[in-house]
Amino acid sequence: WRNLADGSLAAVLAASALALTCLAPDRPALAPRAPALLAAVTILAVLAANGHAYNLGAVRLAEAPRPLAQALGRASLHRVFTPFSFDQARRPERTELEAGFEWGRGTLEACWNVPAHVGNLSLYAALPAGRLQRLRDAVPTPQLARMAGRWGVEALVVPADPGLAARAGVISPPLQVLGADESLPAYLVALPHLPRARLAAELVSADPAGAFDLVRRAGPGERRTVLEGPIPAGYRPPRGTVSVVRDEPERVELASESDGPALVLLEDQHAPGWSARVDGVRAEILHADWLGRAVWVGAGRHAVSFEYRTPGLRLGLAIAAATFLALGAAALARGRRAPAESRLG
């Protein structure tokens, strides 16, 4: 309710300011400034809606080293998860903003994970991924942490004492501590996990509702892949390998080799805008394990690529260009008509 109230208040204020700006052309004194007022109101509305995204922490905190990221290295994309919330009481000497900034950056939460080339299950977007949000709403955090290895999450960030992960039932002992940040303090504890990119072995087919139920009820050691699509007749788990050749935010390239037809699985979120190609030929992306994306390949060696393009971007650019041209033509016609009307007058 608090979020709803805050959002409604911001919307009412923005709409009121926009309405007043639209009335400006009717007042001769404000008419020349109407475009500038409209632009200012639009910018302020965006800032009001995304205020938390523009909070800046102290430079000394931004430049501080991140031991947990250094413990992981940058040879490949690592994935971590923080199942424990930040307690402001642990940092009484800091302001709330600085304490949260220090904790988030030190524990590699979104969006501080991006410069360190670290992935996680946290959300940092105006429109969060619906499937991930639904999973987080339905599954208790300790259970989600235990099953996170299914999506290639290889480590958990644990505050105060690495043994807290075992006492909370998140990881079964013995624990393997990968790194520590004594200044927080926080520890990076290894989580049993499957490779982020791999050949699916045993498959089970389900519709979206059934896939969600199977995934959220699966145990941490579950290795079956839940596929939202048909399984070919005579399918058998293939033998082979998958390796990541190129790893960028908007493009991931894989190399696969198998002794039979195989489902190449990449445990990155499937979202509108992603397309796939197998050996340069467009391929259908299937939902796998609720969050991941997968494509079918034949026996042998194959190059698989996933590429992201913002949905509707080209159409939006085309509409913007057409609108700009139409407004320019209207302004030009109005400018030519005004002198003619003055001569007639």
Describe the structure.
The structure is a single chain. This protein is of the alpha+beta class and 345 residues long. The chain is built from ten helices and 16 strands. The strands form four sheets. It has a five-stranded mixed sheet with strand order 2-1-3-5-4. It has a five-stranded antiparallel sheet with strand order 9-10-16-12-13, with no helix packed on it. Helix 9 links the parallel strand 7 and strand 8 (225-227). The longest helix has 32 residues, at 313-344. The protein starts with a helix and ends with a helix. The mean pLDDT is 83.
Helices, strands, pairings?
Layout (H helix, E strand, L loop, with lengths): L1 H21 L11 H16 L9 H4 L4 H6 L5 E4 L14 H11 L11 E3 L9 H9 L2 H7 L7 E5 L4 H4 L9 E5 L4 E5 L6 E3 L3 E3 L2 H10 L7 E3 L12 E9 L2 E8 L3 E5 L7 E5 L2 E3 L2 E3 L3 E6 L2 E9 L4 H32 L1
Parallel strand pairs: 1-2, 1-3, 7-8
Antiparallel strand pairs: 3-5, 4-5, 6-11, 9-10, 10-16, 11-15, 12-13, 12-16, 14-15
Helix pairs in contact: 1-2
Major β-sheet, in short? 5 strands, mixed
Strand and helix order: HHHHEHEHHEHEEEEHEEEEEEEEEH
Q: Return residue spans where pLDDT drops below 50 for at least 5 consecutive residues.
A: none
Report the total helices: 10
Helix content: 25-40%
Mean pLDDT: 83
Short account of what is shown:
The chain is of the alpha+beta class. It has ten helices and 16 strands.
